[in-house]
Amino acid sequence: MNDIDAWVWWLVGAAALGIPLVVTAMPEFGMLAVGAIAAAVVAALGFNGVVQVLAFVAVSVALIAVVRPIAARHTRQRPQLATGIDALKGKQAVVLERVDGSGGRIKLAGEVWSARALDTGRVYEAGQEVDVVEIEGATAIVI
């Protein structure tokens, strides 16, 4: 196997590592594929097999050691912008029809919502302002 064949084999290996990356969505396979591409470059430059393997290992380990913790940290973070029902939690609403532990109506974000008091013994009369603490289905839970 000559040097030209070596870089081709490294590219084949990189493509082979790309397949499980797509199938399993495990980014580590992508990092190994980048290591194989680095080894292909080293092979194309004419270095021997030991240097090629060292380049593959060094680049792969460096990427896994640096990129993986950063990616893991980003997956644990909550989105900065709340959307949907999450955006309604904490908003103020105006009572349209008496709200108690069994139900009522409020105006929330320009729309009429069914509502229920969080404290079942508490009653909110029409015109009062309430805070939305939770959304359960199509019902706002208010205090």
What does this molecule look like?
48% of the residues lie in helices and 24% in strands. It contains three helices and five strands, in the order H-H-H-E-E-E-E-E. The radius of gyration is 29 Å and the shape is rod-shaped. The chain starts with a helix and ends with a strand.
Strand-helix topology:
Layout: H1 3-24, H2 27-44, H3 49-76, E1 92-100, E2 103-108, E3 111-117, E4 129-136, E5 139-142
Parallel strand pairs: 3-5
Antiparallel strand pairs: 1-2, 1-4, 2-3, 4-5
Give a quick summary of the entry.
The protein has helices at residues 3-24, 27-44, 49-76, and strands at 92-100, 103-108, 111-117, 129-136, 139-142. By secondary structure, the chain is of the alpha+beta class.
Counting helices, strands and paired strands, the structural category is alpha+beta
Topology order in helix (H) and strand (E) letters:
HHHEEEEE
Quickly count the helices.
3
* Helical content (DSSP H or I, runs of 4+): 40-55%
Cα shape: rod-shaped
Distance between the termini: 75 Å
The Cα radius of gyration reads: 29 Å
> How many strands, which pairing sense, and closed or not: the largest β-sheet?
5 strands, mixed, barrel
Strand order of the largest sheet: 1-2-3-5-4
Uncertain residue segments: none
Sheet-strand content, in percent, reads 15-25%
How many beta-strand elements? Answer: 5
On the 0 to 100 scale, the average pLDDT is 91
Features:
single chain; 143 residues; alpha+beta; 5-stranded mixed β-barrel; 3 helices; 48% helix
